[in-house]
Design brief:
alpha+beta; five-stranded antiparallel sheet; 15 helices; 23 strands
């Protein structure tokens, strides 16, 4: 099932019985039902969506954190564009999150079988289209070659279905394959949500482990849509809705539906399945008065405990729009229904200032630092202020045992990404240079980038290859990808137009450290930080900032090398790159892919070197002297003199 809700949906299935008056086991009282809900930890995801006019550079931004567990598959893959023979069929594959999530050649070279591995078998097929786009994926599609981007978060839902090929299975499509099909077939967010909804209605939708609903945030250079979907009562179709994020606004979602009143007569803002109203009436989920509240009708509330979703939503809104002053607490009649009943947070808000990439990076790294919920403080943080909580407190089965705060950044994350689409080249340079030029002149990022670049072979230079659809590759787009815990990772810029991702991001399984894997380098760093978190995190963040500054310079190159000059909207940058970067482009400039690969290799090497530096600096409870001749300074717990 989805890494965002493998264990959560087992709990939501029990609540689903309760909310729809389906009789559970005769031995299951309301108290024991609640106890079951809290038994296991929840894997979950957070996503943000920024409209074009709410961003600092005119791009849309959609993000996703994949907060799985130690058995998650963190590998990236690239599916190239292709043409297909008339009458071809497209295989549909099962949803598997645990490593390996797929074995075969259907989703790029990353998942080719290793010795002894059996190929993943399809569970069905649908008609193929004539031509398909290239795209990056992990479990979900990330971005395709015409700047269509995705982020995901699982949510509880009232109806369930099982996959074809499982006992009593009747539904063919899960959210992973829906996102793949959209990335393969369309270029706009509006087309994507309509296509995914139509396919799910036709072939049936199943959520993680047979239960749960799903959310996607889908962006193109012009629009951002939020997409909700769940199984329908027949278990052979689907119920879905999509709402456009208003211009000038940002949305936040964290494992809980956020679309409220649906107005299908307003086709500019809403899309959805027409039968949702009839289903809601038939099953007592709506009284037929006014507009249908999608969340109130089809959500089962928060996973696990109160504030599991709400605290992350509050954190996003308080970061992006502090002037709105939304409340961190809300009322509820049971541990799960507060967000449904109290409606403390809006669908979206205008940010107090245009949002830059750095704002979303900071949001994904949040442990609520500086607030009353700061997880780096208090007894549970230990003597060195660790924000990580490895287990649910109390005794299993005790309904009053409580829960830790659920932070946005979390130790068990497999990866996070921020996908940017479109944007003005001039405004984009202002945003990226804000990262590059914090302490230096405007060209310093370009100079630093030049140090990373090898001399390319002649065959690597020249024009970027283009897709064969006739409109070229989406040149302004980029993916900022960070493996493992967002708080301790380095986000690197990647481009679908460069083809397969660097090898460092295509390897790394659970249980065995791989020195050639970016995932393992950053996971190793995160675990090492637990030794002296409050001290080590300072060095780790400085390391991340340094390499993200280098990445910002490379991001400028992505647009420059992909597109050059030309008119916006034709796969071209809005204007030529700055002189410093133009000089790097010349006839001897490395290819886009070579630059990205070189940067990835440098980040990997530097991250492993960082782990050695941390051990050397903080060994045996002391901090190594910064200059020769000084005595070692012992490290004290925070707050002690």
């Amino acid at each position: 099932g989805s890494p965002c809700a493998r264990s959560a949906v087992r709990r939501s299935a029990v609540r689903r019985q309760r909310s729809l008056d389906v009789q559970p086991s005769e031995n299951m009282t309301p108290r024991s039902l609640f106890a079951l809900l809290a038994l296991s930890s929840t894997d979950a995801c957070t996503m943000y969506g920024v409209s074009r006019t709410a961003s600092a550079d005119g791009s849309t931004m959609v993000s996703h954190s994949d907060d799985g567990a130690g058995d998650s598959d963190s590998r990236l893959s690239y599916v190239p564009p292709a043409r297909h023979k008339p009458g071809s069929m497209r295989h549909i594959y099962p949803t598997i999150d645990e490593y390996p999530k797929f074995i075969g050649d259907a989703f790029g070279k990353t998942f080719l079988p290793l010795p002894g591995q059996a190929l993943t078998k399809p569970i069905g097929q649908i008609p193929q289209v004539e031509a398909t786009h290239g795209y990056y994926l992990n479990g979900y599609a990330i971005q395709n070659d015409c700047e269509l981007s995705f982020g995901e978060s699982t949510a509880s839902a009232v109806f369930r279905a099982d996959a074809v090929g499982t006992p009593n299975g009747t539904a063919l499509l899960a959210i992973e394959e829906l996102s793949h099909l959209a990335a393969e077939r369309v270029c706009t967010a509006r087309e994507a949500v309509q296509l995914m909804g139509d396919l799910a209605v036709q072939y049936g939708f199943f959520g993680p482990d047979g239960g749960a609903g799903e959310m996607l945030v889908v962006g193109d250079p012009d629009e951002v849509f939020v997409f909700h979907i769940l199984s329908d009562p027949t278990a052979r179709s689907a119920i879905w809705a999509a709402q456009r994020v208003p211009e000038g606004e940002v949305m936040v979602a964290a494992n809980h539906f956020v679309i409220r009143e649906v107005d299908l007569d307003d086709a500019d803002r809403f899309l959805g399945s027409p039968h949702m109203h009839r289903v809601a009436l038939q099953h007592g989920l709506w009284d037929g008065r006014g507009k249908l509240d999608f969340t109130a009708a089809f959500s089962l509330g928060e996973y696990g405990n109160k504030y599991y979703s709400g605290r992350r939503m509050w954190d996003g809104f308080r970061r992006f729009a502090p002037s709105v002053a939304l409340p961190p607490a809300y009322n509820s009649t049971d541990p799960w229904s507060g967000l449904k009943e109290s409606r403390p947070y809006p669908f979206s808000v205008p940010p107090d200032a245009p949002l830059a990439l750095t704002d979303l990076l900071a949001a994904h790294r949040s442990h609520y630092e500086g607030t009353s919920f700061d997880m780096t403080r208090g007894v549970a943080a230990g003597p060195f202020g660790s924000p990580d909580r490895y287990a649910v407190p109390g005794t299993p089965g005790d309904t009053k045992r409580g829960a830790w705060e659920r932070s946005v950044a979390i130790y068990r994350a497999a990866f996070a990404w921020i996908a940017q689409s479109g944007g003005s080249a001039d405004r984009g340079r202002k945003q990226d240079s804000a990262v590059v030029d914090r302490d230096s002149a405007a060209a310093s990022g370009a100079v630093a980038l030049q140090k990373l670049l090898p001399d390319p072979p002649p065959e690597e230079t020249g024009a970027l290859r283009r897709g064969d659809r006739g409109d070229g590759c989406g040149c302004r787009s980029k993916i900022w990808f960070g493996p493992a815990d967002p708080a301790t990772t380095v986000f690197v810029p990647l481009s679908v137009c460069a083809g397969p991702p660097p090898e460092q991001y295509t390897r790394g399984g659970p249980g065995k450290v791989d020195r050639e894997s970016a995932y393992w380098a950053h996971r190793y760093t995160q675990n090492l930080a637990q030794v002296r978190y409050s001290a080590m995190i300072v060095d780790i963040r400085a390391h991340s900032l340094e390499w993200e500054e280098q990445g910002a310079a490379l991001a400028l190159q992505i647009g420059a090398l992909q597109c050059g000059g030309g008119a916006p909207g034709q796969g071209q940058a809005a204007s030529p790159p700055p002189d410093a970067l133009q000089r790097l482009r010349g006839d001897s400039a490395p290819s886009l892919r070579r630059q990205i690969e070189r940067h990835a290799a440098a980040v990997l090497a530097s991250t492993w070197a960082l782990t050695d530096d941390l051990v050397g600096k903080y060994a045996d409870g002391g901090e190594a002297a910064p200059r020769a001749g000084l005595r070692r300074r012992p490290l004290l717990a925070p707050g002690r003199a």
